[in-house]
């Protein structure tokens, strides 16, 4: 095989091009390729497939040792090839193109150094650094050199070494990278896929890189975009003294604004971390070799995108009539956490969509999808207009109000005693009490609760406001005396709040305004939760995102979260005279803003054994299906799934020390931000899954596959 090697970093150099000689050594040692090397005489990175129009180039020759790639000494440069040095099998000839780009090197190498009929493959690289994701690829001189080879009808491969720190020059790692490169190139060339113009290979320079051990994946390229300029404005101006070095015709122009080259290279790493698809960038970040097949053309998007264009003379002021669907209304502020995952999903599944910030601006006679807060949705339109899709059902308090939820499960279990909910939902009592002085009367009304509290001296109970959230008003107690003390404290807190002025939820941690809250539930408290030593034996609950589509398909997102309490768990004391400290019992992340401990862990990546994870996951899937069955069967008034709506709920589960799972509650509009920055890719993927199953069918009539969504319930027209 006759191979032309080009690059954008130049000849062997410890700083600019420290990798290329290791590749040359591997080619000479492990192949029988006829190799010719034509590279720029100096660094030409970030130049893409450019030629310097109007400039002539010259070629010089140097000769270096093959067996010692760490030795950067060489013979030359010479103006012409040196036949005696060429004949020395221990040396390799390098053609250095002065003032030439990588594309220029490919052209000169194909047409003048080797001859058009004598080139089987143009190999460009290895680049010093990765050429993954579209941002790097579109600027890459390495890929540009390969593209020039394709322009001359040759097969081409671009090769890049993705270093972890600048620069990795460990000889053993580089030898392994070079060996993997050679073997990968040989296999790609021998089984070249139809329709492929060039391949781009990225090899991570990691400490355990090894041929035969490091995995290699064919991957798509991550499509990303710059979020800001590659240049920053400098406070320094171009002064008179600087202008003397420029060809300035007008001598009056003697000053200018300086812009400094300062691209945000970390953007690529952030884009890769936020992405959910297994792309080139994701493969490299996980220590794998990526191979991406490319076409070297500005390809037409589709056959329909042809024909004459008639310009509209009124284009100076575009109206809604000039905009095209699909129409998406996002009524969240631009700085909202949800804007990122929302717009990412729109870009992926509804490219070219018109995004509006108000439903009033959307057309009435076309399909419109709105994602916003419950109060911002047009619920009247939901019931009458099938061209309108929204991200929430109108009636669903049968799920999200704790008292309604408890009633639905009690009714359902009475009819279905073999349901998993019989053991997967704690024994629950309802309590109505608006004032502490009336607690005794309220317990008379809740007679079963009174009897349970009077007869049971060992169990702990948990009190929850029916409409509370963020841990507000949750308390633990063991007997009626402690319960009375809790209600007394509620009134004391309320009186203090009234004296201080307006109620501030942020400043009232775990607080409650009793006069505005009268419905509570009381449950037996799980006193033996599953604890993990590596997380400080802190209690946790599992947050599970559940997508309900239409009326009704229920999907469980299999990537779940473990949310930990603030302090280590201690079983509630039997000393009934002391109030129970709830710090080690509440697992709401909103209460732990200042902690430096791990608050959120992805369930699938926890230290639990695979068998334990599977057992827990299977229970969660089964419980979730039964929960939505119970809401449909027991409380059709308060849970009405609509065909042109969907909703994502946050279901919270507890696991005991025997790996038995119990559901705690269902939350509408869960706080996705609690996932944290380290796991935000989980939320990005969830929104992509949501669009694939709930939004795309609204526009196209069919859904897409969503790998981590599991369908657990599918019924017709909201009837089990």
Automatic annotation (TrEMBL):
<dbReference type="InterPro" id="IPR004344">
    <property type="entry name" value="TTL/TTLL_fam"/>
</dbReference>
<dbReference type="GO" id="GO:0000932">
    <property type="term" value="C:P-body"/>
</dbReference>
<dbReference type="InterPro" id="IPR027746">
    <property type="entry name" value="TTL"/>
</dbReference>
<dbReference type="InterPro" id="IPR002828">
    <property type="entry name" value="SurE-like_Pase/nucleotidase"/>
</dbReference>
<dbReference type="Pfam" id="PF01975">
    <property type="entry name" value="SurE"/>
</dbReference>
<feature type="domain" description="Survival protein SurE-like phosphatase/nucleotidase">
    <location>
        <begin position="3"/>
        <end position="227"/>
    </location>
</feature>
<dbReference type="GO" id="GO:0016787">
    <property type="term" value="F:hydrolase activity"/>
</dbReference>
<protein>
    <recommendedName>
        <fullName>Survival protein SurE-like phosphatase/nucleotidase domain-containing protein</fullName>
    </recommendedName>
</protein>
<dbReference type="InterPro" id="IPR036523">
    <property type="entry name" value="SurE-like_sf"/>
</dbReference>
<dbReference type="Pfam" id="PF03133">
    <property type="entry name" value="TTL"/>
</dbReference>
């Amino acid at each position: 095989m006759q191979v032309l090697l080009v690059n954008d970093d130049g000849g062997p150099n410890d700083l600019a091009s420290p990798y290329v000689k290791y590749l040359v050594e591997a080619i000479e040692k492990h192949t029988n390729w006829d190799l010719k090397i034509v590279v720029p005489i100096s660094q030409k990175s970030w130049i893409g497939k450019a030629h310097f129009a109007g400039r002539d180039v010259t070629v010089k020759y140097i000769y270096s040792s093959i067996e010692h790639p760490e030795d950067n000494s060489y013979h030359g440069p010479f103006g012409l090839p040196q036949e005696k040095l060429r004949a020395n099998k221990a040396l390799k000839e390098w053609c250095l193109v002065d003032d030439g780009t990588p594309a220029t090197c490919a052209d000169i190498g194909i047409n003048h150094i080797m001859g058009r009929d004598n080139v089987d493959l143009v190999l460009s690289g290895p680049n010093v650094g990765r050429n993954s994701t579209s941002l790097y690829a579109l600027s890459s001189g390495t890929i540009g050199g390969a593209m020039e080879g394709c322009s001359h009808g040759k097969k081409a491969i671009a090769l890049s070494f993705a270093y972890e720190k600048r620069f990795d020059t460990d000889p053993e790692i580089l030898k392994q990278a070079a060996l993997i490169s050679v073997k990968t190139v040989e296999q790609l060339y021998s089984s070249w896929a139809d329709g492929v113009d060039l391949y781009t290979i990225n090899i991570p320079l990691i400490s355990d890189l090894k041929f035969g051990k490091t995995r290699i994946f064919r991957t798509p390229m991550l499509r990303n975009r710059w979020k800001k300029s590659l240049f920053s404005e400098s406070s320094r101006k171009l002064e008179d003294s600087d202008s003397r070095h420029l060809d300035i015709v007008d001598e009056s122009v003697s000053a200018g604004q300086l812009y400094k080259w300062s691209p945000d290279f970390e953007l690529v790493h952030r884009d890769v971390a936020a992405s959910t698809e297994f792309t080139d960038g994701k493969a490299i970040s996980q220590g794998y070799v990526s191979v991406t097949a490319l076409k070297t053309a500005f390809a037409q998007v589709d056959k329909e995108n042809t024909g004459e264009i008639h310009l509209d003379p009124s284009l100076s002021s575009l109206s809604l009539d000039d905009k095209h669907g699909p129409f998406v209304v996002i009524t969240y502020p631009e700085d909202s956490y949800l804007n990122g995952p929302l717009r990412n999903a729109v870009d992926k599944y509804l490219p070219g969509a018109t995004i509006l910030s108000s439903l009033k601006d959307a057309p009435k006679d076309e399909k419109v999808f709105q994602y916003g807060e419950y109060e911002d949705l047009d619920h009247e339109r939901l019931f009458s207009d099938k061209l309108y899709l929204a991200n929430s059902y109108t009636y669903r308090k049968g799920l999200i109000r704790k008292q309604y939820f408890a009633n639905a499960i009690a009714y359902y279990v009475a009819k279905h005693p073999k349901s998993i909910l019989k053991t997967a939902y704690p024994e629950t009592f309802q309590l109505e009490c608006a004032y502490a002085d009336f607690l005794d009367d309220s317990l008379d009304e809740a007679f079963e609760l009174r009897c349970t509290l009077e007869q049971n001296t060992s169990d702990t109970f948990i009190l929850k406001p029916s409409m509370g959230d963020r841990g507000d008003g949750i308390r633990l107690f063991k007997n009626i005396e402690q319960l009375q003390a809790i209600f007394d404290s509620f009134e004391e807190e309320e009186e203090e709040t009234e004296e201080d002025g307006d109620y501030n939820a942020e400043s009232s941690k775990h607080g409650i305004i009793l006069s505005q809250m009268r419905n509570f539930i009381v449950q037996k408290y799980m006193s033996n939760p599953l604890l993990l030593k590596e997380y400080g034996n802190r209690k946790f609950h599992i947050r599970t995102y559940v997508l309900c589509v239409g009326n009704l398909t229920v999907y469980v997102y299999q990537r779940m979260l473990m949310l930990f309490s603030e302090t280590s768990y201690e079983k509630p004391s039997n000393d009934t005279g002391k109030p129970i400290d709830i710090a080690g019992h509440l697992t709401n992340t909103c209460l732990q803003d200042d902690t430096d401990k791990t608050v959120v862990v992805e369930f699938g990546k926890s230290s639990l054994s695979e068998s334990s994870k599977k057992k827990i996951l299977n229970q969660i899937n089964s419980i979730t299906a039964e929960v939505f069955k119970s809401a449909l069967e027991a409380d059709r008034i308060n849970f009405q799934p609509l065909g042109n709506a969907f909703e994502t709920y946050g279901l919270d589960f507890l696991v005991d020390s025997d790996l038995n799972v119990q559901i705690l509650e269902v939350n509408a509009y869960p706080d996705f931000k609690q996932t944290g920055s380290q796991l935000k890719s989980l939320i990005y993927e969830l929104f992509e899954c949501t669009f694939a199953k709930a939004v795309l069918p609204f526009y196209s009539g069919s859904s897409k596959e969503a790998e981590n969504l599991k369908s657990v319930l599918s019924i017709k027209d909201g009837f089990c």
